[in-house]
Structures are given as C-alpha cells and as structure tokens.
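Running this now, will post back.
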Amino acid sequence: MPTPPFLLSTGQMRRLSPHFPLSHGMPRVDDRRVLSGIIYVIRHGLQWRDAPTAYGPHKTLYNRFIRWSRMGVFDRIFAALAAQDGPPGRLMIDSTHLKAHRTAASLLQKGLFPAVSAVPRAA
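Update: finished.
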C-alpha cells in the first residue's frame, strides 16, 4: 500500500489528539491517516467508497466519521480551535455549501423544525 498523502502535519495532530476519545480494547487504526482520508473525502465532495485506497478502507473512514460525529468529537475540536483566537471580527457564509433536499421543506409542516419567524404563513 502506498504511503498516504497526509493532510495534517504532526503539529496539527498534536493539537487535535487531546480531543480524541480513548481507545478501548484493540488499538485504533492510525488516526492521522484516517482523519486525512475523512478530510479528503469531504473536501472533494466524494462518496465514501470513492476515497483513495491510500487512506485505508472506505468503511473505516465512514465508521470513524459517523462514530466521532455522534460522540461530538468534531464539535469539541472545532470549538477548541475557534476559542484559541477569540471571537472573529467577521463571519462569512458561502451559500454554495448550504444545500437542502427538496423534502426538507416538509419538516416545517410536520413540526420537526422550529418556525423561522413569527410571521403567519399563507394558508
């Protein structure tokens, strides 16, 4: 297997590793390789099965991403990194990354999403 092109340096991994959950039982697959694979898939908008084999099995990337997302690992990492520099002077949102499926509009009608404003909707 070829050496994967790591997207995270050893210094970056040192900053992130305190937020990783502890390993139970068998040791985890290389965190640096797996996180680089997750970043690669998300950055390029790929499906998990299209991840380069250099990052390991796509199922490992997917399972780690789902498990750590549910555990809030990525939320803690983002919060810790954002807190280091203090509040930003400017916030920007790139609308090309705000996507919703066409069925998302029905969530409001089903009561699964809070109303955005107090303005009454047309019947």
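DSSP finds five helices and no strands in the chain. More later if anyone needs it.
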